[in-house]
Amino acid sequence: MSNQDVFLEGALLEEGRINHSQLEAARRYCIEQEVDLVDALILTEAISSHDIALAKAGICEAPFVDLAEYEVCFANTRLVPRAMAERYDVFPLFLIDDVLTLAMDDPLNLEAMDQVRQFARCEVDAVLCDRERLRPLIARAYSLSHAEDAHVEAQPPEAEIHAAQHDPAHPVVAAVNQLLADAADESASDVHINPDEYDLRLRYRIDGVLHERQGPPLSMHAGIVQRIKVMANLDLTQTRRPQDGKFRFAHDGVQIDVRVSTIPTVCGENVVLRLLSSSQVIVDFHELGEAEAEAAIHVAEPDPAQPVVAAVNQLLADAVDQGASDVHINPDEYVLRLRYRIDGVLQEHQGPRLSMHAGIVQRIKVMANLDLTQTRRPQDGKLRF
């Protein structure tokens, strides 16, 4: 047992965070499972990883950093190689004035600091972080930021992906797996992968709103698209017209179906993934929190004089009158946005009140014969008027 573990045990007992029986159980777990004391305390549920990190920060007299409060730049992974980051549980947070702020699980590990200092060729300032947040950050950041960009561009994407499609350690395969896992963890309904002139944009649709996320570098775009095409059994050689497909993957024991759509653009192929989880729970109107008067709209016979029915009829009539090909109804925090796609361009129009959004959605679902109670995953249908 290291001196740091002895100090940690004493600090946790003195502060009353654990008792002697929990400590003895953790020690036995250390021996049986061959893990360190910190992992044993966490896995035996004696104490949380966050509380252990705070106690270690006091012992080491190192500043504690909550990674949940930081927007970490994945480009910093070039400062520390992945093997070193995983071996020592370290991650480069930021570099300012030739001083690298290094997130560490053990700030007293001088060997780790010397290795990082030698590789990055700069001074290192260590901060202590929660181990359960640090390790997933290392895995995600290095999976989504491939350091060997030249190798990705040096080979045709088809040949590279076919050669490594069964290798989860391959950078492109790892990046796609990480994208899907993050989307499932955040309960995203869609994943949008859009290249522009300088960057690769990654967005997740969560509760109907697109959220920007840090993604892989633009140099990985071709490989990622080809990997997704392999998974969806699409034509790898076809890049100049849209394609649709589907595949299934497992995450935390749950099977998730994914619908894939690709469409060519000036900067490359856009990819949209729609996730349909089999574990979604169907709820009724009362669980949705709707008033009885609002719920009655969904089951009542359509009355053209009813405000919601009249609003939907007017939306459809205006769309036809203006020659629109699409109608977009998007709620935000304060207003209900209404847009018509006319001659390929989305044009903003004044729409109904935000308070009518739930009724309008349910009315359209009635017309399209969709499931009224399903609000947590996408649905498709059609109607005629």
Please give a structural write-up.
- By secondary structure, this protein is α+β, with helices and mostly antiparallel strands.
- The protein has helices at residues 3-14, 20-33, 37-43, 49-60, 82-88, 110-120, 131-144, 149-154, 157-164, 171-185, 221-232, 285-288, 292-299, 307-321, 357-367; strands spanning 64-65, 90-96, 99-104, 123-129, 190-195, 200-206, 209-213, 243-251, 254-265, 268-277, 326-331, 336-342, 345-349.
- The chain has a six-stranded antiparallel beta sheet, with helices on one face. A four-stranded mixed beta sheet has the order 1-4-3-2, sandwiched between helices. A three-stranded antiparallel beta sheet has the order 11-12-13, with helices on one face.
